[in-house]
Amino acid sequence: MAQNIIKTSTVETETFYHRNSNFTCYHKAPTRVVVNGVAVDEDVAPIRFSGTTGDYGCFQTNDPEQIAYLRGRSDVLSPGQYMEVTMTPEQKVARAQAESRDKERIIQENNTLIQSLQSELAARGVKSGQQQPQRNAS
User: Fold this and answer.
1) pTM of whole model > 0.70?
2) Residues 82 and 107 in one domain
3) What does the pLDDT profile of the chain (138 residues) look like in tens digits?
4) Please, are residues 70 and 16 in contact by the beta-carbon 8 Å criterion?
């Protein structure tokens, strides 16, 4: 008996920001109809940014068409861009210092590992840069 298999793909929700906290746009033109004297948009859900902190609006979606459309707009910000424009100079300095500390820690860990490996190789009698002879598995 044949079964109908429906493929669904899940798209991760993405967040976008706009300078206008009440900004509304459409990823494609809606069909506008008048119902009881009121204009109503059909077929397309509006993209409505709502207020966050400050003057920026936020919008989240997992609709692939909306995501592609918003990524292509120069007036819409990604979370990283939003952080860059809303961070104070003090916050930017603190972030740079934290990143610098992380890089220094990684360098120190790598140097410790290199020294440990060099000591282990020296204990085995292998010179630095020299390949260790392969053992036959007999």
Assistant:
1) no
2) no
3) 455 555 556 779 999 999 988 898 888 887 888 888 888 877 778 899 998 767 899 999 999 999 999 999 999 999 999 999 888 999 989 989 999 999 999 999 999 999 999 998 888 887 655 665 666 655
4) yes
Count, in order, helices (H) and strands (E) of the chain.
3, 8
Residue 68 lies in domain: 14-86
Residue 114 lies in a domain: yes
- Side chain identity, residue 79: P
The answer as to whether 67 is a domain residue is: yes
E strand intervals along the chain: 14-18, 24-25, 31-35, 38-42, 47-48, 50-51, 57-61, 76-77
For 77, counting Cβ atoms within 10 Å of its Cβ (0-12 exposed, 13-18 middle, 19+ buried), the class is buried
Residue 1 in domain: no
